[in-house]
Amino acid sequence: MSTYEEEHGIQQNSRDTRETRETSQEEQRRQVRSQLQELFQNFGSTGGEGNGHSDSTLLLQLLSQLLPESLQEEWLQEMDNGKNKGCPDTFAASLPRINKKVLKPSDNCSICYTNYLEDKYPLVVELPHCHHKFDLECLSVWLSRSTTCPLCRDDVMGHRVINEIDTTEAELEEDWGMYG
Amino acid sequence: MASLPKRIIKETEKLVSDPVPGITAEPHDDNLRYFQVTIEGPEQSPYEDGVFKLELFLPDDYPMEAPKVRFLTKIYHPNIDRLGRICLDVLKTNWSPALQIRTVLLSIQALLASPNPNDPLANDVAEDWIKNEEGAKAKAREWTKLYAKKKPE
């Protein structure tokens, strides 16, 4: 079984000059920190399920005692953010635009509450499946962090593939009509 | 401080001109993103006849991010911990920018009417609620009388 010193490469440092020791200690601290973060997030996410249940719980408890609460919260937040990744950047821009003529004066964006027609050149898009409309700008920000429609929580990415195939087919047919 | 988004101004105006029954929300004079809130306990709940004070803060990212809401009045409820923090899906993972201050406060009022001890934030309260619902409700009523008493205006 390896000792703590061996595992963390401390022995090696003791032979180094003072200067390199300092830099490698910093490097080590970073490594230990990221290892701790990994441990914490792993055990946090599994909740100590599966094998080694009691070990995990114990370790998590131990880790929680060692780590300042602010750091734990930061790491948990990071985990949450990782889970709620949004759509790719190109998705919102690829949504069908709504012609100004079909917009009524009372229609407004449910994200910024502004009537679309207050803008001389409104840039309004529609989600293809649920047909909910939003300002492109507002919706883009939301879809960078979520994949759901703000109004009905429909998973917009769930229909993406089908939608893409549809467009290609439509384009193909058009081409056939023109050149065939 | 950055200027207040139009949406926040509109929401605030609507809250004042067309208030939700049993709920008040007033922005702080010095910080228009900070609201002092009161919610009346729903009828036929252990919180009936109580008036609960809360604070609500709209973060810079609002409405992309949910408002931060906390009970200031002590309350015995399985989804509200002793610091007043609330366990409610729309305040966390189920937030949507189409929701607003009004809907959030209505959801909190609904949470008072129907506590959910199976998704607890205050573990000891939830345990009490599951094991001895009548006793827990009696305690909630007692706390309402003690801490959330309606003040004559």
CATH architect. name of the largest domain in chain A: 2-Layer Sandwich
Roughly what is the average pLDDT of chain A, rounded to an integer? Answer: 74
Give the low-confidence spans of chain B. none
What top-tier CATH class of the largest domain in chain A fits best?
Alpha Beta
Apparent shape of chain B:
globular
What is the chain-wise order of helices and strands of chain B?
Answer: HEEEEHHH
If you compute it from the alpha carbons, what radius of gyration of chain A comes out, rounded to the nearest whole angstrom?
27 Å
Terminal-residue CA separation of chain B: 35 Å
| Overall number of strands of chain A | 2
How many β strands of chain B by DSSP? 4
Helical element count of chain A? Answer: 8
Fraction in helix of chain B: 25-40%
- Cα shape of chain A: elongated
Quaternary: heterodimer
User: Low-confidence stretches of chain A at least 5 residues in length (pLDDT < 50)?
Assistant: 12-16, 162-166
Structurally, how many domains make up the residues of chain A? 2
Name the chain pair whose interface involves the most residues. Answer: A-B, 16 and 12 residues
Major beta sheet of chain B, specifics?
4 strands, antiparallel
Membrane topology (chain A): Single-pass membrane protein
Biased composition (Basic and acidic residues) (chain A): 1-30
Keywords (chain A): Membrane, Metal-binding, Transferase, Transmembrane, Transmembrane helix, Ubl conjugation pathway, Zinc, Zinc-finger
Organism (chain A): Saccharomyces uvarum (Yeast)
Explain this structure to me?
The complex is a heterodimer of chains A (180) and B (153). With 180 residues, chain A is mainly alpha-helical. The longest helix of chain A is centred in the first third of the chain and has 29 residues, at 18-46. Chain A is elongated. In chain A, helix 3 crosses helix 4. Helices cover 57% and strands 3% of the residues of chain A. Chain A folds into two domains: 4-83, no CATH class; 89-179, Herpes Virus-1. Chain A has a two-stranded antiparallel sheet. Chain B is of the alpha+beta class and 153 residues long. Chain B is built from four helices and four strands, in the order αββββααα. Chain B has helices at residues 6-17, 101-113, 123-131, 133-147; strands spanning 23-27, 34-40, 51-57, 68-71. In chain B, strand 1 (23-27) and strand 2 form a beta hairpin. In chain B, helix 3 crosses helix 4 (133-147). In chain B, 33% of the residues are buried. The mean pLDDT of chain B is 93. Chains A and B meet through helix 7 of A and helix 1 of B.
